[in-house]
Amino acid sequence: MKDLHALFRHSLAGLRMLVAATLLLGVVYPLVVTGIAQVAFPWRADGSLVTAAGTHTTDADKAVGSALLGQLVDDPGLFQPRPSAAGDGYDPLNSYGSNLGPESPDLIAAIKERKADIAEREGVDPAEVPADAVTASGSGLDPDISIQYADLQVTRVARANDLTEAQVRGLVADHTSARTLGVLGEPRVNVLELNIDVLRLAGRDAPPA
Amino acid sequence: MSSLAPALGQVAVLVAALALAVPFLGRYLAHVYTSPRHLAVERASYRLVRVDPDADQHWRTYAMSVLGFSLAGVLVLYGFGRLQSHLPLSLGFPGLPADGAWNTAVSFVTNTDWQWYSGEAATGHLFQMSGLTVQNFVSAGVGMAVAAALARGLARSLQDGRVGNFWSDLVRTVVRVLLPISLVAAVLLVALGVVQNLLEPQVVHTLAGGVQHVTGGPVASQEAIKELGTNGGGFYNANSAHPFENPSPLTDVFEIFLLLVIPFAMAWAFGIMVGDRRQGGAVLAVMVTLWGAGVALLTWAEMAAPGTAPGLAGGAMEGKETRFGEAASALFAASTTGTSTGAVNSMHDSLTAPGGGVALFNMMLGEVAPGGVGSGLYGLLMLAVVTVFLAGLMVGRTPEYLGKKIGQREVTLVACYVLTTPVLVLVGGAIGLTASDGLAGLLNTGPHGLSEGLYAVTSASNNNGSAFAGITSSTPFWNTLLGLCMLFGRFLPMVFVLALAGLFAGRQKLPPSAGTLPTHRPLFVVLLTGVALVVVGLTYVPVLVLGPIVESLS
Predict the structure, then answer these.
(1) How far, in Å, are A4, A93, A158 from residue B487 at the CA level?
(2) Residue B82: CA count within 13 A, CB half-sphere
(3) Which pLDDT score is estimated for A206?
(4) CB contact under 8 A, B316 and A15
């Protein structure tokens, strides 16, 4: 009984402390960060949106996507992203990985099928298809593909857009990021920014916003 | 695909940054927990809340304050979740169901941050920033306060069970440590690409003519304390694999730095608080050894990519982001499970069998490699007491640690501490993996399915919060079971720690004698590391054999 009474008293003090903490940490702190972010880094703070011309914007109506989010590409003449387990594919309202384990029959079947499909699409040997091309990312929103997967797609994209392979290779190089400081992370190619430039170079209109 | 040189290089970058920051932060933490002076803003908060920050609390009172504050936290967060649809910035989401609100309230108050829901599909901005973010701060503060109380108990002599003041420890931790670092870290994260706004999902028309929702929110402010406080609850379902939470290799290594720096620095602060830096150094050495071993093993497993699916694909990239690859994903996975963070930058369910086994083992160690903020230090100190006790038995002398005799009562408390989580994991796991409601939640089958369920109860009981996320835990069965695991896994050990702190504070601090086992030498580091491994080994080997080990061998 005495202990219960003590717990009650301490809970009341705890409740008062929590109210004070909520004002400071749950209102003032996030709003201060939001304020600084919106003034100093508005493009980043609002989601790194890009337009069909490849420029930065904070206006979603003018944007074709976020430089940080992959998106579904149904145009067979463009670079294809990785498989995605987010909703019906690249749905930010459902960021998901497949969560299938290394011995999962479903995953094994999916990898075999993807490998065969990609090899046929690109007209190459299945052994040349890299790992990222046949596996779903952790977020389902991966904006990047490996350099190997980009290289694999160059011939098809060049042919579909009446560009030379050298031109397309140049664009791939433009949108390739090396490891940060030479050691952090992996080299990668940003698919959306690359596709924007392919369309621009080919003189193909982006769909109306 | 990762190669070895950069894989080692990024560990070197991380270790160098930690080596610079840990001594500095450790000194600062020791000052925070020993300084008699209050800041003006702290004094104002004590007046507002009507607590006496100068009362030297008996351990029972200290524990009551911990429990009372946490109880208030659970009740408030529960109500917040249930009622979120009636509050601003809810994005149109309904209130959380009763079992889900219970699970989430317990989860964030216990510093676990297990998530049954998917952030972008269930929680509004206000609940995230004014409910969850607040507990990200204060649950970390509670853990650090308890560790400070134990250090104080060891440093004192004949103080009749008095271990300091919880309110002052909590407020100082938040105001002087967590808030300023989080503020700077959050702004840095935005500069590097993490979003920070209060927008509803913005509709963009994609290059292919489709529609995509760009999901915003106060993400960076939560991301910073999520890592710094070893919380781990993602703003989005994909957590730190989501490009808006972790956009680049640079933010990735920065987030790993944030989640490791306080657990390591607490060991340094401990040495200063007990008046012998070498004691802190020994504890730190054990933490570094265990963490380093985890990183090495997990990196090896992911880069070697054993298993059928990785073999077919030509690499273990399922569930991993291109920008991180195998090595940075392994570094994150080992660090987040070695601390009690539980944030993920890859899906642990899709790790290779040995890689997932290391993640599981890391949590089973009881979160001491280097552990959660505060909980890592007190967890390792409990094992240090076990170690001196065992060593004392071997040579037939009364064991002592830092001049405190280890008697029957001390050993009883430590034994209770060491047994709590294994009992929760094994009993909880047995229930979850035999009940039909439990089995219904598993995605994977065979040994991997067993690992999936085992991972859930291990993560909850050790307050980690990461998952083999194929499991569907949004059911009343799993929400209730895991909620209980988290609750008892957090507060029972804390009460044992505080009781021990009080016992130590009341004992006389004896000068070392010829028979004292030195606890700052490499020999002790080896002994303590061995005890940590043997205790977990003896407890969990049978179930590890049935899960990750048999999967590795298949």
Answers:
(1) 18, 30, 59
(2) 11
(3) 52
(4) no
The helix or strand, by DSSP H or E, that contains position B208, with its residue range, turns out to be none
- What is the DSSP-derived secondary structure letter of residue B351? S
DSSP sequence for B137-148: HHHHHHHHHHHH
How far is residue B448's CA from residue B433's CA, in Å, rounded to a whole number? 12
Contact by Cβ (8 Å): B461, B493:
no
Distance of CA B505 to the CA centre of its chain: 27
* Residue A1: Cβ within 10 Å count: 5
Mean pLDDT computed over every residue of chain B: 96
Is A30 close to B218, i.e. CB distance below 8 A?
Answer: yes
Plot region of A178 (φ>0 → left; ψ -120 to 50 → alpha; else → beta): beta
- A115 touches B: beta carbon within 8 Å: yes
* ipTM entry: 0.96
- Contact call for residues B216 and B195 (beta carbons, < 8 A): yes
Q: Which helix (H) or strand (E) holds A79?
A: none
Sign of CA dihedral B254, B259, B264, B269: positive
Residue listed under structure tokens 């929110």? B217
Residue-wise burial string across B59-88, b where 16 or more C-beta atoms lie within 10 A, e elsewhere: bbbbbbbbbbbbbbbbbbbbebbbebeeee
d(CA A173, CA B475): 48
**Non-local CB neighbours of B40 within 8 Å, separated by 6+ positions:** none
Residue A118 has pLDDT above 50, yes or no: yes
Please say whether the beta carbons of B78 and A18 come within 8 A: no
- Please give the pLDDT value at position B1: 66
C-alpha torsion A139→A143→A147→A149, nearest 10: 70
B66-83: pLDDT as tens digits: 999 999 999 999 999 999
Please state whether the peptide bond connecting residue B518 to the residue before it is cis, i.e. omega within 30 degrees of 0.
no
**Among candidates A7, A74, A101 on the partner chain, residue whose Cβ is nearest the Cβ of B208:** A74
Q: Which residues of chain B have pLDDT under 50?
A: none
B121 and A94 in contact (C-beta within 8 Å)? yes
User: Exposed, middle or buried: residue A164 (CB in 10 Å: 0-12, 13-18, 19+)?
Assistant: exposed
Burial tier of B507 (Cβ tally within 10 Å: 0-12, 13-18, 19+): buried
Q: Which residues of B259-275 are buried (b: 16+ CB within 10 A; e: fewer)?
A: bbbbbbbbbbbbbbbbe
Locate the chain A residue with the closest alpha carbon to B347: A138
Please tell me whether residue A144 adopts helix, strand or coil conformation: strand
Question: Are B317 and A135 inside 8 Å of each other by CB?
Answer: yes
Q: A-B interface: how many C-beta pairs under 8 angstroms? A: 413
Query: Which pLDDT value is given to residue B395?
Result: 84
Q: How far is B128 from B124, CA to CA, in rounded Å?
A: 6
